[in-house]
Automatic annotation (TrEMBL):
Keywords: Membrane, Transmembrane, Transmembrane helix. The lineage of its organism: Bacteria, Bacillati, Actinomycetota, Actinomycetes, Pseudonocardiales. One of its GO terms (biological process) is CAAX-box protein maturation. The chain crosses the membrane at residues 31-54, 66-89, 109-128, 148-166, 187-205, 211-227, 234-256. It comes from the Bacteria. One of its GO terms (molecular function) is endopeptidase activity. It comes from Saccharothrix australiensis. The keyword Membrane applies. Residues 155-243 form the CAAX prenyl protease 2/Lysostaphin resistance protein A-like domain. Pfam families: Rce1-like. The keyword ATP-binding does not apply. This is CAAX prenyl protease 2/Lysostaphin resistance protein A-like domain-containing protein. PANTHER family: CAAX AMINO TERMINAL PROTEASE (PTHR43592), CAAX AMINO TERMINAL PROTEASE FAMILY PROTEIN (PTHR43592:SF15). InterPro entries: Rce1/LyrA-like_dom.
Length: 258
């Protein structure tokens, strides 16, 4: 099975093409919303299990370096791995089903939208912090790192996760698996864009920051929308996470104040 046809080059042309071209075919794809629900269950149950182990052992997950790293990384990575396995067992594999075909034009679009996302995120975060206060505007990972005072190796591992591993895994799950499940129902690409953006924001389980996460997710979803592939959204997500990830690194090793 071939990947979907190339979209017209450029952001404006890509947006104009959405809705006029037929949706990618899903021949051989034998998974849908059930697969996404299974992946989400793996994510939640893994996080609950890690928390339960920490509490049973009497460990404060907010101050233990090991639990900060494991609790932050393992649920998302494991969930993404399950998504990939599902496409291999019940479909055509991740390259086809999750639209992972490589294209340098997609990288350029992802970079542009990622930089746009950085600007939007910065402005939205400024407004949001004024509305809810700086403490309430802090992300869950930010709170964990703030309480843990990570050593250099652990801080670098967290930086790599926030900037690279996390974005790749989340894109596989939401704008890969979930987007593909929505397309398989015959819904429009705009419906896939809206639903994946909202579910992505809500799935972080940070109710106070959900509206901010929606703003963050918009350019990333647009990258997926106009290219029809995951590469652009992965690049946009990585770029959008870079400065926050770098800030976490510098704070956690004591270079910047909390």
């Amino acid at each position: 099975m071939k990947p979907p046809d190339e979209p017209p080059p450029g952001l404006i042309a890509g947006v104009r093409a959405v809705g006029r071209e037929p949706s990618p075919e899903n021949a051989g794809q034998r998974w849908g919303f059930g697969a996404f629900l299974l992946v989400e269950a793996v994510f939640v149950l893994t996080a609950v299990f890690i928390t339960a182990v920490a509490r049973t052992s009497g460990t404060d997950i907010g101050t233990s370096v090991a639990f900060v790293l494991v609790g932050s990384m393992v649920p998302t990575v494991l969930a993404a791995a399950v998504a990939v396995v599902i496409t291999r067992v019940r479909g055509n594999g991740p390259l086809v089903d999750l639209r992972l075909s490589w294209n340098w034009a997609d990288v350029k679009i992802g970079l542009k939208l990622g930089l746009l996302g950085l600007g939007l995120t910065y402005l939205a975060a400024l407004v949001w912090s004024r509305v809810v206060g700086d403490q309430n505007a802090t992300s869950a990972i930010g709170e964990l790192v703030d309480g843990a005072a990570l050593p250099l190796a652990a801080a670098i591992a967290m930086f790599l996760y926030v900037c690279f591993v996390g974005p790749i895994c989340e894109e596989l799950i939401y704008r890969g698996l979930l987007w593909g499940a929505i397309e398989r129902q015959g819904w429009s690409q705009w419906a896939a864009f809206v639903l994946t953006t909202l579910i992505f924001a809500a799935s972080h389980l940070e109710p106070l920051r959900t509206s901010l996460l929606i703003v963050i997710a918009l350019p990333i979803g647009i990258a997926r929308l106009i290219t029809r592939r995951l590469t652009a959204s992965v690049v946009a997500h990585v770029v959008n996470n870079f400065l926050p990830g770098l800030t976490l690194l510098l704070v956690s090793i004591g270079v910047m104040p909390t």
